[in-house]
Amino acid sequence: LNKILTSKNIAVISHANPDCDALGSLLGVYFALKIANLNVYAVNVGPLHKKFDFLPGFELLQTQMPADVDLIIALDCGKFSRLGIERQACEIINIDHHLSNENYGSINVIDAKAPSASAVAYDFLVKNGFAIPKESASCFYAALLADSGCFCYDVVTQQTFELAAKLVELGANPGLIGKGLTQRQSIAQVKLQAKVFDKILFYKDERLAAACVSQNDFISTNADILDADGFADKARALNGVELGMCLRELDNGFIRGSFRSKSFVNTTIIANEWGGGGHYHASGFECKIDNNFEIDSKKIINRVQNLFLEQLGDTKGDIK
Ligand SMILES: [Mn+2]
């Protein structure tokens, strides 16, 4: 606490390619420190997708780290390198819920059982006597809603709803935030989805579903890379599918892979294969393209099938 109160300029930051938990946790902490009269910057290296502009304070986000910062508070980020910034001389408070967190902070506040980084951040602020303004409550609620899969994941407990209720009491509007998060698709995104799911691939008795999105798919539907966010979730949502995956061809010669499992597959083990990471039910990686997207996708999917089977072996008789 002293570190926070004695710092002149604090940067609150979260991982590159931020999701709703990253930005919601970041902005929630930002507003709580702001009303405590601290000098604070909201920083994320981006890219910042406008679909998150329903979050209070979205317009305050800056993509460059200011030079005069003497404390960094990192949120929802398991690895220092994912913050996308240079090593700083100043101290870091690392607030997160990734099991794989590398404890890169001078203070590490990690709760791998928490449904969202915002839940950890909320506890941290309250324990240290900070007031939670309405804007923080809204941002924390949005982050909680997103990272709990709209309260559908196994991490959701009675405490999750108690936290949600508390955030609503503090001023979060569930209807507004829920619609902001789930009912603002662009037509380009829907067209991209139609195109990609028209050619979705199934393996292992249709328990593994793979959606592949090439640069050509993005261009022909006028969609951008972030419009494919959520495709792995949609693949997993299919009846009978245990593991949903999405491979995207980025415009810089890389592939981004995302994995989502329904119950027994530990997706962290799978993403680790390509140097990625994440959570039990959600993980991802990026790797350089060797040949071309089609050939590399096939290779990755083949490897995933084997990793899937290895985990299936551990749970024999457990699944349908
Ligand atoms: Mn998170």
**Strand-residue proportion:** 15-25%
Question: How many β-strand runs?
Answer: 11
- Radius of gyration equals 20 Å
The biggest beta sheet is recorded as: 6 strands, mixed
Bound molecules: manganese (II) ion
Can you tell me the overall shape? globular
Question: Please, how many helices?
Answer: 11
Query: Helical content, roughly?
Result: 25-40%
How are the strands of the largest sheet arranged? 6-7-8-9-11-10
Rounded average pLDDT? 95
Runs in which pLDDT lies below 50 for 5 or more consecutive residues are none
Structural category is alpha/beta
Q: What's the SSE pattern?
A: HEHEEEEHHHHHEEHHEEHEEH
Quick take:
By secondary structure, this protein is of the alpha/beta class.
Describe this structure as you would to a colleague:
The chain has 320 residues and is an alpha/beta fold. The protein has eleven helices and eleven strands. It has helices at residues 2-6, 20-35, 117-127, 134-147, 158-169, 174-182, 187-198, 215-221, 231-236, 267-272, 293-314; strands at 10-14, 40-43, 71-75, 91-96, 107-110, 201-203, 208-213, 243-249, 254-261, 277-278, 282-288. The strands form two sheets. Strands 6-7-8-9-11-10 form a six-stranded mixed beta sheet. The protein has a five-stranded parallel beta sheet with strand order 2-1-3-4-5. Strand 1, helix 2 and strand 2 (40-43) form a beta-alpha-beta unit. Helix 2 (20-35) packs parallel to helix 3 and helix 4 crosses helix 6 (174-182). The protein is globular, with a radius of gyration of 20 Å. The termini are far apart.
